[in-house]
Design a protein that fits this description.
The chain is α+β, with helices and mostly antiparallel strands. It has helices at residues 32-50, 83-104, 107-111, 114-130, 133-141, 146-172, 177-185, 191-211, 213-219, 222-225, 241-244, 255-260, 276-279, 300-312, 324-328, 338-359; strands spanning 55-56, 59-60, 62-65, 70-73, 76-78, 236-239, 319-322, 364-370, 377-378, 383-394, 400-406, 413-415, 419-422, 427-437, 445-454, 461-469. Helix 4 (114-130) runs antiparallel to helix 6 and helix 4 (114-130) packs across helix 8 (191-211).
């Protein structure tokens, strides 16, 4: 750090507050948690890349049709007015994350977060072209030559292909992917589609290839507030200091020496200070320094430490998924605790309400707009007439024939089309008129209800309320 300027001089010192991040060279070691992570990636990757190619009733299974304002998700069609359903789903996802975090710590980041998954894919490509950790460090330090050039270029090309596939697939959720791919091959892509594909391709390449752990450390807000969901019984990746300290290298004892010598006799713990736990960490932290917000609970340090303990013939678990109470007090793991019960109960309740709302959702929207220019009209036949614009939105995935009627026994005559066929996802507008004889008893302002019911499926029906306006003169409802 530069010294502060002296009072006797006019010298100005510039203090650089930005510290460039050092590149992290992760080491590849096989183990239980690395293999487990592969199995958690497969469903997400398969779902992401394959869902746009599935077809249901002749259309894409998952398709967000922004132009028509329709969102197809498997056998259901959602419209902009279904936004509360999306809000409910986001709230449920948040509480699910809270529940998992309180129970298992930050395992979502280590095993299922797209940033982690794509970063490891990019690192695997890097390892394939540039070799293991020590080879990559050596390659970056050496001057440019043909060998370094082809390895770096080959890596970037493969990164670009993976990023391009990711970007095209993402855009394929908004534009039919079966039409999108041929359009790219024929160089007939719309400018807007090409723009968004380029944006998501570039973001994937930058996030997974360049920024990597910087996204987890500085961009993702979850890293900053995850600790408030922890309690002393949350399972987190921890280093057992009582067993591991003091650290120090040593030779593996064999035969009779192993029986008569113990590292602790020389003031050493089980940690051999090999630093493999640091070398495999994707965020570059030392878990032996205690719990840090940078830890994504991927378990790779556990695999590395267990491999060393096995070679040294020490008990495994020097680094493990454990709780604060288990580590410091020797308490058993507590499954049931107030905060976890609260999170889980709220999650179950919200999931139940969400499923019920989906099951009871009526795929029919009715909107009635009364003519506001002419409050009422006296026809040549002496009838009082009100006009309405009726809009029927068929949100089902099949066509229906709807019947239009009134819900009560008002002595109104419904003039106009009373039956209409509406195709799947179609919106139909009708002009409806209600009339009543002028000599009949009526109120100047009468509540009425229009009923639109499906003749194809009697369970689908919707009611919309409006008013019938007339000149003052009656004393009773028009019944």
């Amino acid at each position: 750090m530069d010294k502060p300027p002296s009072k006797d001089t006019d010298e100005i010192h510039v203090l650089n507050l930005y510290q460039p991040a050092d590149k992290i060279y992760t080491r590849h070691l096989e183990g239980f948690y690395r293999k487990l992570a592969r199995w958690t990636w497969l469903p997400m990757l398969a779902g992401y890349f394959l869902l746009p190619w599935l077809s249901i009733d002749g259309r894409q299974a998952v398709w967000f049709d922004l132009a028509e304002r329709k969102f197809y998700i498997f056998w259901m069609t959602f419209w902009p007015q279904d936004a509360p359903i999306l809000a409910a789903l986001l709230i449920i996802s948040a509480f699910a994350l809270f529940t998992i975090t309180n129970f298992l710590g930050r395992v979502w980041c280590g095993f299922s977060c797209p940033q982690t998954v794509w970063t490891r894919i990019f690192i695997s490509i890097e390892e394939w072209f540039e070799g293991e950790r020590h080879r990559r460090i050596k390659l970056d330090a050496q001057p440019w030559d043909v060998n370094k050039l082809w390895r770096k270029v080959g890596k970037q090309v493969c990164w670009g292909l993976v990023a391009l596939a990711t970007g095209i697939t993402f855009v394929g959720y908004f534009n039919p992917v079966r039409e999108l791919i041929p359009a790219f091959l024929d160089f007939a892509v719309a400018p807007a589609t090409l723009f968004w594909t380029a944006i998501f391709t570039a973001l994937t390449w930058a996030n997974a290839g360049l920024m990597r752990e910087q996204i987890c450390l500085y961009v993702c807000p979850y890293a900053r507030f995850q600790s408030v969901m922890f309690d002393p019984d949350t399972l987190i990746v921890s280093y057992n200091k009582l067993r591991g300290e003091l650290r120090g290298s040593r030779k593996k004892l064999r035969g009779s020496r192993k029986k008569h010598e113990d590292p602790k006799e020389h003031g050493l713990g089980d940690c051999v200070d090999c630093t493999l736990c640091v070398q495999v960490c994707p965020t570059g932290i030392d878990i032996r320094d205690g719990l840090q917000y940078e830890c994504i609970s991927c378990g790779l340090c556990i695999d590395a430490c267990n491999a060393v303990m096995e070679k040294m013939e020490y008990p495994k678990g020097l680094i493990s998924f454990t709780t604060e109470n288990m580590l410091n007090k020797g308490d058993p793991f507590h499954w049931l605790r107030p905060r976890l019960i609260g999170y889980f109960s709220a999650l179950v309740l919200m999931c139940g309400l969400f499923v019920y709302s989906l099951g009871s959702r009526i795929p029919l929207e009715v909107d009635i707009i009364r003519d506001r220019i002419n409050l009422y009209r006296i026809t040549p036949a002496g009838l009082i007439e009100n006009s309405y614009q009726l809009k029927i939105n068929n949100m089902d995935q099949r066509k229906h024939r709807y019947q239009i009627s009134l819900s009560d026994n008002h002595k109104f005559s419904l003039v106009g089309q009373t039956e209409v066929t509406v195709e799947e996802g179609e919106v139909v507008q009708l002009l409806i008129r209600l009339t009543v004889p002028r000599e009949a008893n009526y109120k100047a302002n009468t509540d009425i209800q229009f009923v639109v019911s499906s003749l194809t499926d009697p369970s689908i029906s919707n009611v919309e309320q409006s008013r019938f306006l007339a000149p003052a003169g009656g004393t009773n409802n028009a019944r």
